[in-house]
Design a protein that fits this description.
The structure is a single chain. With about 375 residues, the protein is of the alpha/beta class. The protein folds into two domains: about 170 residues, FAD/NAD(P)-binding domain; about 180 residues, D-Amino Acid Oxidase, Chain A, domain 2. Helices cover about 30% and strands about 25% of the residues. A nine-stranded mixed sheet has the order 3-5-4-12-13-14-11-16-15. A six-stranded mixed sheet has the order 6-2-1-10-18-17. A hairpin with a 5-residue loop joins strand 4 and strand 5. Helix 1 packs parallel to helix 9 and helix 9 runs antiparallel to helix 10. The longest helix has 30 residues. The radius of gyration is 21 Å and the shape is globular. The chain binds flavin-adenine dinucleotide. The site of flavin-adenine dinucleotide has 29 residues, from helix 1 and helix 9.
Length: about 375
Amino acid sequence: MSQRRSDQTTDSLEVAVSGGSMGGLFTGIALGRAGHDVTIYEQSTGELRGRGAGIVAQGTVRRFLERRDVAEPAEMTTTASERRFLARDGSVDTTSPDSMVFTSWDAIYRRLRDAVPDERYQTGTEVSAVDPETATAAFADGGERTADLLVAAEGGQSATREQLFPGVEPEFAEYVAWRGVVPEDELPADAVDSFDDTFTFYQGPNMLILAYFIPGDDGSVAPGERRLNWVWYDTLEDRNRTAVFTGADGVERTVTVPPGTLRDSVADRQRARAAALLPPVFTTVVEATRAPFVQAIYDLTVPEMTVDRVCLLGDAAFVARPHTAAGTAKAAGDSVRLAEALERRDSLDSALSTWNDDRTDYGTRLVHRGKRMGDERLDLGS
Ligand SMILES: Cc1cc2nc3c(=O)[nH]c(=O)nc-3n(C[C@H](O)[C@H](O)[C@H](O)COP(=O)(O)OP(=O)(O)OC[C@H]3O[C@@H](n4cnc5c(N)ncnc54)[C@H](O)[C@@H]3O)c2cc1C
């Protein structure tokens, strides 16, 4: 039974987490291992597995997985030893040594999900409203749950954030990321050679494209079984945003038109743009991609990450542009720091206040950094 906030200690808390993607799973594991009683509520009915593309496997994420025996990072990551910029004709413009580690969203999600018992992960449960004072979550199906602490890890479109901070919304940065993955064995040998062991870029006028190898669909990191992941930051120029973000199913999305949903005419137009503007090896990769997808680039900053007994965590609080390669690491860091604050402080009030100051400051700085990086890479006249 939950106590009044002023009396609440940080021992063995009952924690309800809304959202079962990266942020929710990191939280479930970090707080669960620290002795708290955590249940995750995820609105999707099916598995999230099998979705998502490549991500940079930052040290925060690798340490999280290793220290909690969730996974052995070397078994689920690929590496590059060099950063390479191509010229428009495909020749190598510059190279510099750089040690990078990559993985796929799916490889991390799978390991995290397997580390949470099924009875602690309820699917098909949407949190429709929260009462921050009593840490109560109301569910869309009419049920409710009162805990000691609610964590909303609901992503950039979080309804809990909307309830707590009406009007604080993601702001479109006026450009998009076209993305895709290609199985290594579907690429010509010279393209595989050209991307192997490198983090490869082409910076064009008002655009940037990059590529790196990630684990295969089945998680294999063996050469020949990997996938090449590419991300192409591009403005929409004179294209109509509604047209680009309306999928083949007729549904208009705000953030991502997922793989397999892009209309053929939209994908064909971007392929033609690739042939006209990119170095030949990148054109080959874009053309070889069976299910390209597109994601709008947004910035999001909240004024606070806690309101009474509710925390906003991961993308529900801050979305920094992907140039920072920090979204998953930030979600892991938010959850680790929350567990640490609860461990170090005796009162819940004081733990949440410390966590809020620490992570709000970090998130705000990260979003600024992402804006700066984006503005340097795409000349948007801002
Ligand atoms: C399927 C999927 C694929 C992704 N692929 C990539 C990728 O390839 N590369 C990359 O960099 N990032 C990817 N991301 C985004 C990445 O996970 C986040 O940027 C980052 O890791 C922070 O995660 P998050 O848990 O805060 O937010 P998100 O990953 O956005 O997850 C939010 C979760 O909350 C659930 N949810 C939302 N509202 C409610 C509610 N009211 N009640 C219950 N549940 C709710 C959503 O269904 C979702 O599962 C992906 C996200 C998803 C969901």
